[in-house]
Design a protein that fits this description.
The structure holds two protein chains of two kinds.
Chain A: H1 10-13, H2 17-60, E1 63-64, E2 72-73, H3 77-84, H4 86-119, H5 124-136, H6 139-150, H7 156-163, H8 178-203, H9 207-215, H10 220-231, H11 233-248, H12 252-257, H13 269-279, H14 283-307
Antiparallel strand pairs in A: 1-2
Helix pairs in contact in A: 2-14, 3-14, 4-8, 4-11, 4-13, 5-8, 11-14, 13-14
Chain B: H1 2-16, H2 33-42, E1 49-53, H3 57-62, H4 70-73, H5 79-83, H6 87-93, E2 94-95, E3 98-99, E4 102-114, H7 115-120, H8 131-141, E5 147-150, H9 160-168, H10 187-201, H11 213-221, E6 225-231, H12 234-240, E7 247-250, E8 262-270, H13 277-287, H14 290-300, E9 303-304, H15 318-327, H16 340-355, H17 361-377
Parallel strand pairs in B: 5-6
Antiparallel strand pairs in B: 1-8, 2-3, 4-6, 4-7, 4-8, 4-9
Classes of the chains: A mainly alpha, B alpha+beta.
């Protein structure tokens, strides 16, 4: 490398401490402003479409009406009605039970599939596509598919059951089976997504750790428990929070398949909110139930964040 | 098809009544029509005229988004036309001290019977003498291939339409006469409910909740249900694709206090926010006139509420003619209370549970009343 005559001496290139601080402040200010400029539209959308509606929702919990007619202040009446309403309690219980069935089931199945896919080299892409296809189905299409699978008269499963001499099972018409069946359908729809998510997480894990563990004599289960699960903590962190948020808002498959029946055995909080707001025009009650759902999601998210935090 | 038929009415309106009025027709999606209408009214610019059924319009009337048409329908120049519409239909359109539309059409909830099966069993003339004879007929007709009886049981299929006549025939109703509390009172109502529980638990129906609205009808069309509660628009399906057996329509058997038929009727309303109320009224008068509503009813297989054209309609459709001439005069409609839909939705799961054999008639009526009173109190 040759020296280039810049016309400046080394003394002239040196910044004074004051100038250095000034330039550093200016650089920081510029990068901060640039960041805010990029974040600005998202922040505006957040305020307009989330913060203001949630605040409005909270205000609506103390009012009645307000959509087709003037709003009227009713104090805590909506809160009292919500906690006293047996159907609200049923909808909350159904939603929680559904989530408790669907989330662990889809995670276990997706993890098993992801681990299997990681070891497959030939045909892996095709299997991934096949696994992901159910996720792409809208709930109504999935509902239609499952009519042909579950129908007591002509459904594939019952056809097979009858073939073996058994009695047909009324999957969606039996009060004790309807909710697990809905959970099963949602697991079917979600498995592809979570398999890809876990596979991405698994692929990013450092292979040298596994080689070292293998050399040290760790078996497959030990490697999974001691290496894979801890290393996948960030993936699980996202997965648990996201799945909780999504599943607590269960609506479309229930709306399409059972409309909350039979005997309210599949009514979810979101379906009850929809009915209250759009079918019965009970804005205050619907708003209160909606706000409770928002709070529940926030609390559960906070709790999961605390429990899954990185303990160094 | 319905769009085409409405365009025909609009074309006649423009050629016969108001050439300068531009009418734009749109439809709403039936499964979510309440939500859709709520959004339209909330927008402040709903359609000037809308077709609303008796189950949902009272809530909109209560919230002030419908125009009170009392003065319009009492216009002396329209008195003859008003008189041609059945009183029961006006009862459905008038409540909360106002008149919220002009009754035009309805769908009656009838029974379809497989005449061949009933005749073969020697029950064709006696199956509908009483509740007991219907249960006995259903039991006699049930075998490995045929269900003797079927009715809708889930709220998603609006199953209460099939339940209503038995309750009305027992002197009960969802609400009391003054609409302040549950009207499911009296031993006759309990007995009627017990009968419905008995027929659903007697092994003569498909498993409760196993088949939806369409599934039950398809089973009937396949000759596998002898007595089916359903609705008149399906007559068109049976006419177009005749099943391999003779069939006809009928009403539910008489009860201790009456012999009624349930129907779900619709009115043409004007939005309070409409800036074209005069033109809207002219259009409603045209739509509700005998030639227009009669032609439309025949096209879509619904019933009219005008008494002056009954003899002229459905000449080539004996089943519809029977419905129009014999069933419609027996109609006792629902009570158009603003919360009637909510009351039915709240009470129905109790009935559904009872039909599964989990409650007695007395327990079911008590549970339904608790749900209805809960809605009225809320």
């Amino acid at each position: 490398m040759t020296d280039v005559d810049t016309g400046l001496s080394s003394t002239q290139l040196t910044l004074s401490p004051e100038e250095h601080r000034r330039l550093r402040r200016r650089y920081r200010r510029r990068t901060t402003l640039t960041a805010y400029a990029f974040l600005g539209p998202n922040l505006l959308a957040f305020i307009a479409f989330l913060l203001i509606p949630v605040v409005w929702l909270f205000v609506s919990t103390f009012r009645t009406g307000g959509v087709l007619g003037p709003a009227e202040f009713v104090g805590l009446d909506n809160w009292r009605d919500t906690f006293a309403d047996p159907l609200a309690r049923t909808s909350i219980r159904n939603t929680v039970v559904y989530s408790a069935m669907a989330i662990p089931a889809v995670f276990v199945i997706a993890m098993v599939l992801a681990l299997a896919l990681r070891t497959i080299s030939r045909g892996s892409a095709l299997i991934r596509v096949a696994l992901y296809l159910p996720t792409l189905q809208p709930a109504v299409v999935a509902a239609f598919i499952f009519v042909f699978v579950l129908h007591p008269d002509f459904g594939v499963i019952n056809y097979a059951i009858r073939g073996f001499g058994g009695d047909p099972i009324n999957f969606l018409g039996d009060t004790s089976l309807a909710l697990p069946t809905i959970a099963g359908i949602e697991v079917w729809r979600g498995t592809g997504f979570w398999t890809m998510m876990f596979l991405a997480g698994l692929t990013a894990l450092p292979s040298e750790l596994y080689h070292a563990a293998e050399i040290d004599g760790a078996g497959a289960i030990r490697r999974f428990v001691r290496l894979t699960l801890p290393l996948l903590r960030p993936t699980f962190y996202f997965a648990v929070i996201f799945a909780t948020i999504v599943n607590l808002q269960l609506f479309d498959s229930v709306f399409a398949l059972t409309d909350g029946g039979p005997v309210n055995s599949t009514i979810s909080v979101s379906l009850y909110i929809y009915r209250s707001l759009f079918l019965f025009g009970d804005i205050g009650f619907g708003a209160t139930l909606s706000f409770l759902l928002v709070i529940t999601v926030l609390v559960l998210t906070g709790l999961q964040t605390f429990l899954l935090r990185d303990r160094k | 098809m319905e769009v085409e038929f409405n365009e025909q009415i609009i074309a006649d309106f423009n050629s016969q009544v108001a050439p300068d009025v531009n009418v734009e027709f749109s439809t709403y999606d039936w499964p979510v029509h309440v939500a859709e209408l709520t959004t339209l009214f909330a927008s402040g610019s709903p359609p000037d005229v809308q077709y609303l059924v008796d189950l949902i319009y009272p809530a909109f009337a209560e919230q002030g988004v419908l125009h009170d048409m009392t003065d319009l329908v009492n216009d002396p120049e329209w008195a003859d036309e008003r008189a041609n519409i059945s009183p029961f239909a006006w009862d459905l359109a008038e409540q909360q001290g106002g008149t919220w539309g002009v009754p035009v059409l309805g769908a009656v909830y009838n029974i379809f019977i497989n005449e061949a099966l009933l005749e073969e069993a020697g029950l064709l003339d006696s199956w509908d003498d009483s509740y007991e004879s219907m249960l006995a007929a259903a039991e006699a007709l049930t075998n490995d291939d045929v269900f003797g009886f079927a009715a809708r049981t889930s709220a998603a299929d609006f199953a209460w339409w099939d339940w209503y006549p038995y309750i009305h025939n027992a002197g009960g109703d969802v609400l009391s006469d003054d609409w302040t509390e549950c009207g499911l009172v009296g031993q006759d109502v309990v007995d009627a409910m017990q009968f419905l529980i008995d027929i659903h638990t007697a092994g003569v129906t498909p498993a409760i909740g196993s088949l939806d609205n369409q599934g039950l009808f398809d089973l009937f069309a396949a000759g596998r249900v002898a007595i089916l509660h359903h609705e008149t628009p399906n007559i068109v399906s049976l006419n177009e694709n005749p099943p391999g057996f003779e069939w006809t329509v009928a009403a539910a058997p008489p009860g201790p206090q009456g012999h009624t038929v349930m129907g779900n009727f619709g009115i043409l309303s004007i939005a309070e926010a409409s800036n074209n109320k005069d033109a809207a009224w002219e259009f409603i008068k045209h739509w509700a006139s005998a030639p227009q509503v009669g032609r439309f009813a025949e096209q879509v297989n619904l019933q009219v509420v005008r008494t002056d054209i009954i003899g002229d309609l459905f000449a080539d459709n004996p089943a519809m003619k029977t419905v129009q001439s014999e069933l419609v005069p027996r109609v006792q409609g629902l009570q158009p209370h603003p919360q009637i839909l909510e009351a039915l939705q709240a009470a129905w799961p109790v009935a559904e549970d009872a039909f599964r054999g989990n409650l007695t008639g007395e327990e079911a009526i008590a549970g339904m009343c608790a749900a209805i009173d809960g809605v009225l109190a809320g």
